[in-house]
Amino acid sequence: MSILYILLVLLIVTRLFGELAERFKQPALLGELISGILLGMLVHRFDATF
């Protein structure tokens, strides 16, 4: 997988998690942190170059 593709997916999903957190009246940073943790583990598992 291209590194740019991975970064694009990470940015989009992080933004979506931030918006989702705000809908639950939580800071967007909380959603962004959760997405970073989840996606970090996922990307590390499926792409050995990351």
Structure description:
The mean pLDDT is 87. The chain contains two helices and no strands. The protein starts with a helix and ends with a helix. The protein has 50 residues and is mainly alpha-helical. It has helices at residues 3-23, 28-46. 80% of the residues lie in helices and 0% in strands.
Descriptive keywords:
single chain; 50 residues; mainly alpha; elongated
SSE blueprint and pairings:
Layout (H helix, E strand, L loop, with lengths): L2 H21 L4 H19 L4
Report a brief summary of the structure:
With 50 residues, this protein is mainly α. The protein has helices spanning 3-23, 28-46. Helix 1 runs antiparallel to helix 2.
Largest sheet: none
N-C termini distance: 10 Å
**Which class do the helix and strand fractions yield?**
mainly alpha
Global mean pLDDT: 87
Q: How would you classify the quaternary structure? A: single chain
Number of domains: 1
Q: Helices and strands, in N-to-C order?
A: HH
Low-pLDDT parts are none
Give the overall form.
Answer: elongated
As a percent range, the share of helical residues equals over 70%
What is Rg? 12 Å
DSSP strand (E) fraction?
under 5%
Give the tally of β-strands: 0
**Can you count the helices?**
2
